[in-house]
Amino acid sequence: MPQTGAPQDFASVYDRYFARVYGFVRSQVGDPAAADDVVSRIFERVLERLASFDPARGAFESWLFAVARNAVRDHFRSRRQPLWDGAGDDPPSREPAMDERLVAAEERHRLLLVLRSLDERSREVLGLKFQAGLNNRQIAEVLDLGESHVGVLVYRAVKKLQAGLGGLP
Amino acid sequence: MTDPADRFEADLEAFLAGRPLPPGADEAALAVAARLAQADLAAESRVRHSLRARLLARQARPSLLERLWPLRLPAGLAAACAAAALLLVLMRPRSPQAPLLPAPPDVIQPAAPAAPAAKPLRVRRSRPVAPAPEALARSPFVSIPAASPFETHGKVRAGHPFVTVAGRRTRTAHGQAVVWELEHATVRLEERPVRIEELFVKPVL
Fold first, then answer.
1. What is the value of ipTM here, to two decimals?
2. pLDDT of B99-110, one tens digit each?
3. Which of A8, A13, A14, A22 to probe by mutation at the B interface, max B CB count within 10 Å?
4. Which CATH entry fits the domain spanning A10-85+95-166: 3.100.10.10, 1.20.140.160, 2.40.30.170, 3.40.250.10?
């Protein structure tokens, strides 16, 4: 499927983008069940609006992740709480990982723990860059910012993430 | 390329592609970025497959309009049905009118001196208000004696709505008053001080 074309097959869109959409949403939302809920709403909207997507107005991925970003913001707006305050999350496990799955889960947990301590803009940029897999130009389209500004935001956000991970055991 | 952000972006592309890094690259920050890029957060999803099945089933299901389309009527018949429906709406009977209140108790007192007529009011037609008789019997309120009589000029038929012919605002010794001229009666609503005993019934055992 071309990235800038107008995909007609919802199944292929879902299969191609689910992990990236979920990864972005999960990096913004502190609860996996809430992330499932938000992702469900995103793909429902995509299903409804896919036929009306106009490639002349922008790349498909920029459109898709703009839908995802709006859904995340709607989620927090409807709950009337700040974007991911981390309340209710468990602390990262200190138990030694027993197999690869546990190691991966522990790594996810550490990353998410630090992500939640970052400011909203940094978390958004990191999610779009490293989970959604967008380049700086696409992120600039989604966030309505300049491309060079996005580059600066990514760099600063990575340094914040690095500092946060350095403070973890 | 002197900007650290620009340099980081260039080094990141090389790092993620497995190419050798130039000297002075911030390898620690690049490693952190790679950790986040390689983290499979989607592994936590519990709806990935069920959501796909649900949405694809919805996509395959025709909409209501698409399902009704084979049942579409010929244009002439559809227009006739629409006209019939419109006619039924227009001919819908109005809600039944409630009967008028029973005659008020004797509340006639000496009439106040006639106040000078003021400019006429524009009063709209109104429907009669008729609470249920049992509600009247239980009501703690009593009628307040009016300063002027409820003048009738004929028999008011039960169930017939009051029709306002004219209205005007006047002044009395205690304040303002409004006079409605109905088809069969004249009603005055006026301001004046009352005692609490005039408002409520005192039950006596």
1. 0.82
2. 555 555 554 455
3. A22
4. 1.20.140.160
